[in-house]
């Protein structure tokens, strides 16, 4: 690490300050970012990022917290197109590990080797993603098919996702097959730059059914809004602070898991040299916030206020020519920096 830093200090040249899950993790609440990961919210961002190759380090396991993935974007005149390998469909991952799924008792695969292709022109973009797996030796199957669309007019954005197919099956026990259907799923959102302030809103609705038990159609409803003040930013640094309001309810029959939260956050991203960027943020819930799990056995099915959830995230980006090496600083949960494991969630992006 010291040798790499020394080389970059000697030869460092500017490159775009955009890269990876590590950057998004380090900048909590920064809904205004346009990044190689925000194309999975609004594919119109593809038009703003130029040509690049990006590689995210992580586990090959679909259930791991940090997963390997990567892809590319090319430009051809006023058209941009690209493909991405390994990016998990987060809503399908959420539902296949949800209370409805665990109550059903089945083992459900997450998306296996997903692929997503992108196309953008002018101020709009679209993508199609899919996955398919049939592990006959284990009796497990899964399928997903979804499309995204977005418009970015500079200070105003609109975007949405339609998941038309989401299904996982556990046929490992003859005569006791289980199926989890998690589609359709509709997500819509909008963002607006008001100058000093930046506002965002996003909502999602999904239909979910587990068979044969609880054998009832359920649904997931969630909505989130946030407002960010960026009046302290300048050419050398970006300082922001703001708050959000989130509500979610996952129901099946007469039972549900629900929650509300009022997160507040403060963050900064700034250049410390021509070749290095540092990032940091802190967030926690403020006063309003509770969870309730009606699937649990009393008294665990009662409402609880949110437990202490203050999170500090730190990160760094190292730039050389057209390369950006990005990572989160390890030790955020313990407060100790391990000299043998300085960066986590590492990613390399090359702009060409």
Task: Give the topology, please.
Blueprint: H1 2-11, H2 20-26, E1 52-56, E2 69-76, E3 79-85, H3 90-96, H4 99-104, E4 115-121, E5 124-135, E6 140-152, E7 156-170, E8 178-181, E9 185-193, E10 197-211, E11 217-229, E12 237-252, E13 255-273, E14 276-293, E15 304-305, E16 311-320, E17 323-329, E18 343-351
Antiparallel strand pairs: 1-2, 1-18, 2-3, 3-4, 4-5, 5-6, 6-7, 7-8, 7-9, 8-10, 9-10, 10-11, 11-12, 12-13, 13-14, 14-15, 14-16, 16-17, 17-18
Notes on the protein architecture:
The chain has an 18-stranded antiparallel β-sheet that branches. The protein is globular and about 65 Å long. Mean pLDDT is 88; it is low at 1-18. The chain is mainly beta. Strand 2 (69-76) and strand 3 (79-85) form a beta hairpin. The chain contains 4 helices and 18 strands.
Do you know the CATH architecture? Beta Barrel
Strand content: over 45%
Mean pLDDT: 88
Cα distance, first to last residue?
A: 25 Å
* CATH-defined fold name: Porin
User: In the residues, how many domains can be counted?
Assistant: 1
Which features would summarize this protein structure in a list?
352 residues; mainly beta; Porin; 18-stranded antiparallel β-sheet; 4 helices; 54% strand; disordered N terminus
Quick summary of this structure?
By secondary structure, this protein is mostly beta strands. The protein has helices at 2-11, 20-26, 90-96, 99-104; strands at residues 52-56, 69-76, 79-85, 115-121, 124-135, 140-152, 156-170, 178-181, 185-193, 197-211, 217-229, 237-252, 255-273, 276-293, 304-305, 311-320, 323-329, 343-351.
């Amino acid at each position: 690490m010291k040798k790499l830093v020394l080389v970059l200090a000697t030869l460092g040249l500017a490159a775009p300050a955009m890269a990876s899950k590590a950057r998004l993790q380090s900048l909590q609440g920064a809904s205004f970012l346009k990044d190689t990961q925000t194309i999975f919210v609004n594919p119109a961002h593809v038009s703003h990022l130029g040509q690049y190759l990006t590689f995210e380090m992580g586990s090959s396991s679909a259930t791991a917290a940090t997963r390997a993935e990567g892809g590319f974007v090319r430009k051809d005149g006023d058209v941009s197109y690209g493909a991405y390998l390994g990016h998990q469909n987060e809503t399908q991952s959420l539902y296949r590990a949800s209370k409805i799924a665990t109550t059903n008792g089945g083992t459900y695969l997450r998306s296996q080797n997903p692929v997503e292709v992108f196309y953008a022109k002018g101020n709009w973009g679209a993508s199609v993603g899919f996955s398919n797996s049939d592990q006959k030796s284990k009796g497990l199957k899964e399928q997903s098919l979804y499309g995204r669309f977005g418009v970015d007019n500079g200070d105003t954005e609109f975007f949405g996702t339609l998941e038309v197919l989401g299904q996982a099956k556990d046929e490992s026990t003859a005569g006791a097959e289980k199926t989890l259907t998690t589609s359709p799923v509709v997500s819509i959102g909008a963002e607006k730059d008001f100058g000093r302030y930046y506002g965002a809103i996003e909502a999602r609705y999904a239909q979910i059914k587990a068979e044969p038990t609880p054998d009832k159609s359920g649904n997931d409803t969630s909505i989130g809004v946030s407002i960010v003040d960026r009046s302290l930013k300048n050419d050398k640094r970006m300082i922001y602070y703001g708050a959000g309001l989130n509500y979610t309810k996952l129901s099946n029959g007469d039972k549900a898991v629900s929650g509300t939260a009022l997160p507040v956050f403060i963050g900064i991203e700034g250049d410390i040299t021509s070749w290095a960027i540092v990032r940091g943020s802190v967030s926690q819930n403020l006063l309003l916030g509770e969870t309730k799990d009606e699937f649990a056995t009393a008294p665990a099915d009662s409402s609880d206020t949110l437990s202490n959830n203050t999170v500090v995230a730190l990160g760094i980006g190292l730039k050389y020519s057209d390369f950006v090496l990005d990572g989160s600083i390890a030790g955020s949960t313990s407060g100790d920096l391990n000299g043998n494991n300085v960066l986590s969630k590492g990613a390399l992006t090359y702009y060409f």
